[in-house]
Amino acid sequence: MQENYDCVMENLATNPLIEKLKLLMDLTDDEVQVILDLSFKTQKLPKGQSLIPSNSENVSLVMDGWACRYKILSDGRRQITSFILPGDLTGVRACLFGVSDFDTETLTDCVTTLIDGKDIARLFYEAPRLAAAVTWASAREEAMLTEHVVSLGRRNARERMAHLFLELHSRLEIVGFVEKLAYGMPITQEMIADCLGLSIVHVNRTLKAMRKEGLLEYYNGYVILKNAKKLRSICGYDSNHLEGTLHPEIADYDPDA
Amino acid sequence: MQENYDCVMENLATNPLIEKLKLLMDLTDDEVQVILDLSFKTQKLPKGQSLIPSNSENVSLVMDGWACRYKILSDGRRQITSFILPGDLTGVRACLFGVSDFDTETLTDCVTTLIDGKDIARLFYEAPRLAAAVTWASAREEAMLTEHVVSLGRRNARERMAHLFLELHSRLEIVGFVEKLAYGMPITQEMIADCLGLSIVHVNRTLKAMRKEGLLEYYNGYVILKNAKKLRSICGYDSNHLEGTLHPEIADYDPDA
DNA sequence: CGCATCGTTGAGGCTGATCAACTCGGGTGG
DNA sequence: CCACCCGAGTTGATCAGCCTCAACGATGCG
To answer: Is the predicted pLDDT of residue B13 greater than 80, yes or no?
Structure first.
């Protein structure tokens, strides 16, 4: 974590995460540089902080650590709507459209870089491909939320957990935070429960059962998918929803066409 | 329905729905015209059809009728992830990013106009404000999905139904499909069940209980919110997530700033 | 050492699912 | 014209998945 942070501070451009993002969003070196130039502050946030202060006009790119978006109902029930992982851009909706109906919180210490919302907005005029990349990130978020709705609406506890662990693996793999079928998941069972709409107790029991069946290991903030194939068949997992590339009409725009 | 359809065919520009959308997204007459010019086909779709054929490169703007996005699991369980109402733009993600992981289906006869995905993509270069409007629509969808996640994860049947009916009222009100606290909801209880992650039977019973308490009427495809205030307090409803306007930096871009 | 946080386990209860049967209205074909 | 069927809604009875309450173990930290 610490060395990662230093690396971020010293030279964003050579950060391995940035390299991954470049590939993922099909950006040129110049375009990456535009983003890096816009980033005006790289900071280390302790666990338990808001990723983006409410009323902030900034967008936050997470470089390291886990965070989440959540809503708390009036009686205290909490629903985590999404986990925010390295490489994720948060706060776009809030700053582009002036609505922030959800809170964010760091679940671990995090390294983030901030970009002024105004600058993101100006991308629509000054860097169409980057504006499209922002839209792409937002559409990807939408796809994950849609899958989340399916899980909460029609999958049982076991299927929900299988889906969550597989999706996290896919997401972390893309940004290089995975070792084969294992990855760090530094959050409590309570967070999992609040994400999957279950009680802590039931998460614990389901986890135990899955462990017993040799489906996965989960301890010390570390996940090992022992039987990924079976996990996929349990919940019908398909990583399609995380895929997708820019339409060629955007990627290779030809004004004369 | 029929006269609405004729009206659409004869002159999109004077269609009351288009007027509402103009206000909603803060578009100029010229910008609306750009969209209307791009629309190459207005059609009437019978109930039970796919709104956008898979592999289609088109985006669909619904002018009249109800549709939904859904996913069917391997064993037949179905989850409706969102209802698509007049004024909604569907298929943006599919055509901009080449991923279509969800199906759509018309729940009633629908009137839609089609726009070539390529043209939407080109907006990023040729009409930044319209590209931002498309992003805005996508962000709004994301906000609704987020609320849906909260409902399915942490609200009980009664609260989910209250939230659904209130949100539908808000959405339909914006596009002028509401009469005070009443609106047409031409779908079956099965659709409601599949949207809210409940069984048909339980939807029916919950509805009965809410009717008995004087919270709402629901019959013949018509909803009347008898006690909107109490409904709101039941589920903590807040229409904020449907609000939001373009960042001034986009709305009133000044290249010299 | 004491306290807090997280994980684990048992017992019992409730929300909502499942199964099954019946009603009602509308369409359809004999 | 009527018998029939079909889809949608309604209701009862039973069942199960998950929740709640409660207690206890393990670990880390001041």
So the answer is: no
Q: Two tokens at B46?
A: 């019978």
Residue B216 pairs in a beta bridge with: B225
pLDDT tens digit string along B190-242? 999 999 999 999 999 999 999 999 999 998 899 999 999 999 999 999 998 99
Number of domains making up chain B: 2
C-alpha to C-alpha distance for A117 and A56, rounded to whole angstroms: 9
In a domain, B253, yes or no: no
Instruction: Report yes or no on A156 lying in a domain.
Output: yes
The tens digit of pLDDT for each residue in B139-197 reads: 999 999 999 999 999 999 999 999 999 999 999 999 999 999 999 999 999 999 999 99
What is the residue range of A83's domain?
2-251
Sign of the torsion formed by the C-alpha atoms of A163, B137, B97 and B191: positive
**Which of B106, B131, B154 finishes a domain?**
B154
Select from B97, B132, B154 the last residue of a domain. B154
Geometric angle at alpha carbon A219, from A215 and A223, rounded to 5°: 50
Output the six-digit token pair for B101: 């992981």
State phi, psi for A29 to the nearest 5 degrees: -60, -40
B187 shares its domain with B127: no
Query: Which of B208, B220, B195, B96 shows the shortest CA–CA distance to A146?
Result: B195
Do B17 and B75 belong together in one domain? yes
The DSSP-derived string for B176-201 is: T-EETTEEE----HHHHHHHHT--HH
Q: Which two tokens stand for residue A165?
A: 């662990």
d(CA B209, CA A139) in angstroms, rounded, equals 38
A250:B152 CB<8 A:
no
Residue A199 included in any domain: yes
Nearest residue of B to residue A119 by CA position? Answer: B249
Nearest to A67 by CA among A104, A18, A42: A104
**Protein-covered nucleotides on strand C (Cβ within 7 A):** 5-11, 15-20
Q: At residue A65, what are phi and psi to the nearest 5 degrees?
A: 100, 170
Of A168, A55, A90, the C-alpha closest to B139 is: A90
Residues in chain A: 257
Q: Which of A150-154, B91-95, B183-187 has the lowest mean pLDDT?
A: B91-95
Bases of strand D lying below 7 A from some protein CB: 7-13, 17-22
Annotate B114-136 with b (16+ C-beta within 10 A) or e (fewer): bbbbbbbbbbbbebbbbbbbbbb
- Could you tell me which of B110, B104, B119 has the C-alpha nearest to residue B87? B110
- Most B CBs within 10 Å, among A79, A115, A158, to test the B interface: A79
Please list the residues that pair with A64 across neighbouring strands: A111
CATH number at residue A99: 2.60.120.10
Q: Name the residue in chain B with its Cα closest to that of A135.
A: B135
What secondary structure letter does DSSP report for A247? -
Question: Are B150 and B217 within one domain?
Answer: no
Residue A66 has which token pair?
A: 């886990």
